[in-house]
Design goal:
It is built from 19 helices and twelve strands. With about 425 residues, it is an alpha/beta fold. The strands form two sheets. Strands 5, 6, 7, 8, 9, 10, 11 and 12 form an eight-stranded mixed beta sheet that branches. It has a four-stranded antiparallel beta sheet with strand order 2-3-1-4.
């Protein structure tokens, strides 16, 4: 029985969605679990409606942690960090419902949050009940008084670490930083890629149970107009679609591989970009996909098979040390990064990243692009992309690379996608060509 099942057994008055959300929140903040994996494990017994509510509750509470803790500090006598972790999880869950989730009755938010810890932490229930009832009355006023005129204020108002607000302030300017911070707490755009090795866009649109509109710049991209369980669909099982943001799709388009070419994809798993490259090549030529993790490499092979990308050859190896048997016409470098461009769909990521980790990632990224350069044929094209909004991992890496390699030149300015301007994940995409 999962944590959510145990919670339901302890507190019959708690709805399955709230019990599930409570379990996910605890797993993320107490055990370092990834929110999407924890939700997948805990929500498996739930029906579609309960699962949707559990997702909104868990992801929203994790996303809004800093703002919720601020309200808890203002209304309570105990700092949030001094509360027992289960009590803090129940408090955050209740506060999120009261302050950010429309349509939730006050009594349900308060009573069920208290019920979640009634047996394990009975002595804390009076305090929890009092704070939540006070929040229902005074919490909206506290939120109205928040401002984002400074990085410190913006970190609380938009619920991000202070260091991240300061970094975006410095790199983007105050106005852009505020707009970006506001955007990352809104739902992410829902997009899928049509796998043209299997189906046409018209065939996929006809088979979808929700409205879909063509994506700008992408003949194979569709923007969905309603909730759709892509991974659980027959279209996904048949290899006809891949859930993928428009920003991610633009990476393969930037490399623009041609049928018959010899192409390299470093750091290839989970395979959305790899199979996109194969489709653009019309499955003609050779696409070598390198993945360091053995399990992810095997999963990549299964993905390529499902997407009918027969030109893909998966290599289990270290991207920073990879040496091909012959130079490649086109090389994609999509290395591990902080992922700060994907905060809309990955609510826990903002609490995982940090300045020191970004510097370590930048060093790794530079090592991998160096390996990519050594595998690029004369006249060949190299594309460097990261799904982040961080100068240290984007412009600084490309500048350092070009400073070391006078045989490579930039093909126009790099492109930085921003969620509040482009409506999709934040991506940095740079194109460089090796001299003939």
């Amino acid at each position: 029985m999962g944590t959510a099942g145990k919670a339901r057994g302890r507190a019959a008055a708690v709805t399955p969605a709230r019990a599930c959300a409570f379990a996910v929140i605890r797993r993320v903040f107490e055990h370092g679990a990834y929110a999407d994996r924890a939700l997948h494990a805990e929500a498996s017994p739930l029906g579609p409606r309960e699962r949707a509510l559990a997702t909104a509750l868990a992801y929203g509470t994790i996303q809004r942690r800093a703002t919720l803790d601020y309200v808890a500090s203002e209304l309570g006598t105990r700092p949030p960090g001094r509360l027992d972790p289960p009590v803090l999880a129940a408090l955050r869950l209740g506060l999120f419902q009261l302050l950010f989730l429309a349509g939730i009755p006050e009594h349900a938010a308060v009573n069920e949050s208290v019920e979640l810890v009634k047996r394990s932490h009975r002595s804390a229930t009076s305090y929890l009940n009092a704070i939540l009832r006070r929040a229902a009355r005074d919490g909206p006023g506290l939120l109205e008084r928040l401002d984002d005129e400074t990085p410190a204020g913006a970190a609380i108002a938009h619920s991000v670490p202070h260091w991240l607000a300061e970094r975006w302030w410095a790199e983007l300017g105050a106005a852009q930083a505020r707009a970006l911070l506001a955007r990352i707490n809104e739902p992410a755009e829902s997009a899928i890629r049509v796998n043209e090795l299997v189906a046409t866009r018209e065939e996929v649109i006809a088979a979808l149970p929700v409205p879909a509109a063509p994506a700008p710049e992408l003949a194979e991209g569709l923007i969905l107009g309603g909730p759709f369980d892509a991974h659980g669909s027959e279209l996904f099982a048949a290899g006809a679609i891949m859930p993928q943001s428009r920003g991610s799709m633009l990476v393969a388009r930037a490399l623009a591989p041609q049928p018959g070419e010899h192409v390299l994809d470093l750091c290839a798993a989970p395979g959305a970009k790899t199979t996109h490259l194969a489709a653009l090549m019309r499955d003609e030529g050779t696409l070598v996909a390198v993945e360091r993790n053995a399990g992810r490499a095997r999963a990549l092979e299964r993905t390529a098979a499902r997407m009918r990308a027969r030109c893909v050859r998966v290599v289990h190896g270290d991207a920073a040390a990879f040496v091909g048997e012959q130079p490649f016409d086109r090389v994609l470098v999509d290395p591990p990064c902080s992922g700060l461009g994907t905060l809309q769909s990955r609510p826990d990521l903002r609490w995982r990243a940090g300045p020191d980790a970004i510097l370590e990632l930048a060093a790794l990224q530079l090592a991998i692009i160096e390996a990519a350069a050594a595998n690029t044929a004369p006249g060949g094209l190299l594309v460097y992309s990261v799904c982040t909004i961080s100068r240290a991992e984007s412009e600084d890496v490309i500048d350092a690379f070009l400073a070391r390699h006078d045989d490579f030149e930039a093909l126009g300015p790099p492109r930085q996608l921003l969620p509040h301007l482009d409506g999709t994940d934040g991506f940095f995409i740079a194109r460089v060509r090796r001299a003939s």
